[in-house]
Amino acid sequence: MGDVHERGLATRAIHAGQEPDPRTGAVVVPIVTASTFRQDGVGGFRDGFEYARTDNPTRRSLEQTLAAIENASHARAFASGSAATAAVISLFEPGDEVLTTIDVYGGTYRLFEQVFTRYGLRFRFLASSDADEILAAASERTKMIWIETPTNPLLNVIDIARLAEGRPDGAALVVDNTFGTPFFQNPLDLGADIVVHSSTKYLGGHSDALGGAVITGDMGIDERIAFHQNAAGAVPSPFDCYLLQRGIKTLAVRMPRHEENARRIAEMLEEHPLVERVFFPGITSHPHHDLAARQMRGVPGMVSFRLRGGRPAVDRFFAALELFSLAESLGGVESLACYPFTMTHGAIPDEQKLKIGITDDLIRLSAGIEDGSDLLADLERALAAV
Ligand SMILES: *Cc1c(COP(=O)(O)O)cnc(C)c1O
Q: Which of 220, 249, 278 is the last residue of a domain?
């Protein structure tokens, strides 16, 4: 069949790790539910399978797909993005310092600040998304720089290549690529060491499965992540692996539609008198538009905006939405609206949120892949009800 890794992203998403089943010819990878595998004599594992926490055929296939779409050699699938994040933190020791930004995913903030700080790791949450300012904050204790780009919910874009070239010796650069998606950017190609995903979002794409991934081109890192995956056991079920892999197959057809719908929404909101400010890196008014255009092949379907009238206006807006569901999460085929101040970023102290612009009039939209004109009509009607 040739080397699937040399083919385009849409092809890799459908074929990498997904050769037809050698016994039956089934073109879809089987869901293997066995928790244990018969050994041909002690230690005589067939194809390396021994026990399903350690490795499972459906999961292994998903991991091969995940590695291929991020141009990587290794990927490990986890039960959630948060479990993947915890696995990456397991690489570090008490006293190690992690530099990150304050507008990381709220659950990542909570995991760093309220769980791993207790184990002696030091997390510094910077208010800047400027790569040089982040680098200026590094010290010899810095063992990792952890970023998201675009960030959540303000869609700031951070220069990955600049961080990769300027980081201190021995500091790993980790990029949570949940928002960017491998369709729009491959952080490992820009010099990052590790990519993390919440596959719950765009990769799965249908809001019906939780998953996470740690992806790298470094065999030593992968071995340690695999050790943690097996030791701590936060693995996805074979059925969830199937759903996530099924979702990934259509990533390359879904993302352009998410982008187009978000762009139309951002352009409409920019013109609306009730909207104070729009955050969408795909339009020229965004402060990081040029960097986004250089670093990314496009932008995902996320749009945030400030609504005039504060919390009462926000409540009336949400109440009037019909197609957009008020809900956590993002990246599914259905459009969602969320209130970062108390929902996704509820775990971050108020003064920290306000410092970086997560205000009580901020609304975040995840544009689905419905008809764009219907989404615009829904938003316009909800704005009229404000
Ligand atoms: C949702 C999310 C996570 C956490 O993933 P879960 O699958 O919910 O555990 C991490 N990072 C980002 C950017 C997210 O959006």
A: 249
